[in-house]
From TrEMBL:
It comes from the Bacteria. The keyword Oxidoreductase applies. This is NAD-dependent succinate-semialdehyde dehydrogenase. CDD domains: ALDH_F5_SSADH_GabD. Keywords: Oxidoreductase. Signal peptide: none annotated. Belongs to the aldehyde dehydrogenase family. Residues 16-474 form the Aldehyde dehydrogenase domain.
Length: 478
């Protein structure tokens, strides 16, 4: 297996720009806490150059026929799949997730480019019958303009892929700012697009101090659309900045996913698959199940299955065969897990599994199960975004729904029941953008991905994904 880390660059105007003459930031392998590379940070001049190039290239790309755009995106998908083993190794080095998860993510990223390649061919308009004789009325769909896209470190392939594939299919140019902690993966996507024949300047990839980069890009009149995946507080900040320029913004923010498990459900399935879902990506997954609300008659059975499955998880370096849970991405996440557990325990919670940092050099925290957590504990209000699961009982459906909907988040929610009536009532009553009934798999290229309430607005993926990068132009011709 390759253990070296690829050099890092900025990608502006079709050129790969090194760190020479620029400040850099360390990229750290979270399994060892050792530096593996330095990512160049864009200067204000770099950002201005990226904006200028994006503006010029947009005029060319928007006029490129849909079939040609589709061919480039499809070729990029093929290249990503060809290079998937190497991209996955780089992802595991910089982000820490098990190699199998990294490979699966790269494969799914390629699927988004395949999906939106076909979507490029399906952008259409309509003719509207006029109420006046001799008048032709048409509605055209056109690319909105240059896009500023901001993505986090936890899914460094699939999150940029969702945004890039849809925006490029629509005919937009894009300036992408990925997370500085896992930069190599996004650059691999950019290289695939470049090698696939994407015209120079249609895509730029920049890194930098997040607040400085976002304020610089969003304030520019060149940017006509903003898309962001990340935390609720940063989403609010970027939304306010976009509003100053009356720019539309798509937000995919945090969650605190409830799972309602009813007495009549397959309890073992709900618990064992819940463990896999909760601790995938070391719990650093916005749609992950976090609060397991179990009807009282099945509560103890669920707890037993859940704890047993949690204790059986293999923790380690993501490159080690058999590893199921890797390290947290950075020391900040590690410190937060310690704080959340300590706070819950101090207020009366029981630790049924885990609860501690592993004694090693990396950022490892044991998969943790908490029960009897009081409502004033931080973990009952804050998204854990790490390997902590909360178990609690409820009595009746209205009680479970009330707790599930208590928080201001509404990204994902799940329910397990053998009753068709209960499934319908729960699906109708849960306040979430994505709901899984008797399963935890709720993401696919053909499906919209997005939340409600403070978890954001707008959808990525599915037939809805391209809509945010298009505008309607009405033409009335006499």
């Amino acid at each position: 297996m390759n253990t070296s880390y690829d050099p890092l660059y900025l990608f502006i105007g079709g050129e790969w720009i090194s760190a020479e003459g620029r400040a850099t930031a360390a990229v750290v392998n979270p399994a060892t806490a050792l530096e593996i590379g330095r990512v160049p940070l864009a200067t204000a001049g770099d950002l201005d150059h990226a904006l200028a190039v994006a503006q010029v290239s947009f005029e060319q790309w928007r006029q490129t026929v849909p079939d040609q755009r589709a061919k480039i995106l499809k070729r990029a998908a093929d290249l990503i799949l060809e290079r998937a083993p190497h991209i996955a190794e780089q992802m595991t080095l910089e982000e820490g997730k098990p190699l199998g998860e990294s490979l699966d993510e790269v494969t799914r990223a390629a699927e988004y480019f395949e999906w939106f390649a076909e979507s490029a061919r399906r952008i259409d308009g309509r003719v509207v019958p006029a109420n006046r004789p001799g008048v032709l009325q048409m509605v055209k769909r056109q690319a909105i303009g240059p896009v500023a896209a901001f993505t986090p470190w936890n899914f460094p392939a699939i999150t940029p892929a969702r945004k890039l594939s849809a925006a490029l299919a629509a005919g937009c140019s894009v300036i992408l700012k990925p997370g500085e902690e896992s930069p190599s993966t996004a650059l691999a996507l950019a290289r695939a697009l470049d090698d696939a024949g994407l015209p120079k300047g249609v895509l730029q990839v920049v890194f930098g101090v997040p607040d400085q980069v976002s304020s610089h890009l969003i304030a520019s009149p060149i940017i006509r659309k903003v898309t962001f995946t990340g935390s609720v507080p940063i989403g609010r900040l970027l939304s306010a900045r976009a509003a100053e320029g009356v720019k539309p913004i798509t937000l995919e923010l945090g969650g605190h996913g409830p799972v309602l498990v009813f007495d009549d459900a397959d309890i073992e399935k709900a618990a064992v698959e819940g463990v896999a879902n909760r601790f995938r990506g070391t719990g650093q997954v916005c749609i992950s199940s976090t609060r397991f609300l179990v009807q009282r008659g099945a509560y103890q059975r669920f707890v037993d299955h859940f704890v047993r499955a949690t204790l059986a998880l293999k923790i380690g370096d993501g490159r080690t065969p058999g590893t199921q849970v890797g390290p947290l991405a950075n020391p900040r996440q590690l410190a937060k897990m310690q704080e959340l557990v300590a706070d819950a325990v101090a207020k009366g919670a029981r630790v049924l599994a885990g609860g501690k940092r592993l004694e090693c050099s990396g950022y490892f925290f044991e998969p943790t199960v908490l029960a009897d957590v009081p409502m004033n504990a931080r973990v009952m209000h804050e998204e854990p975004f790490g390997p902590i699961a909360v178990l609690m009982p409820f009595d009746h459906l209205p009680d479970g729904l009330k707790e599930a909907n208590r928080l201001p988040y509404g990204l994902s929610a799940y329910a397990f029941t053998a009753s068709a009536r209960t499934a319908i009532d729960v699906a109708d009553g849960l306040e979430a953008g994505m709901i899984g009934i008797n399963q935890y798999r709720i993401v696919a290229t053909e499906l919209p991905f997005g939340g409600v309430k403070e978890s954001g607005h707008g959808s990525e993926g599915g037939i809805e994904g391209i809509e945010h990068y298009l505008t309607n132009k009405f033409i009335s011709q006499a």
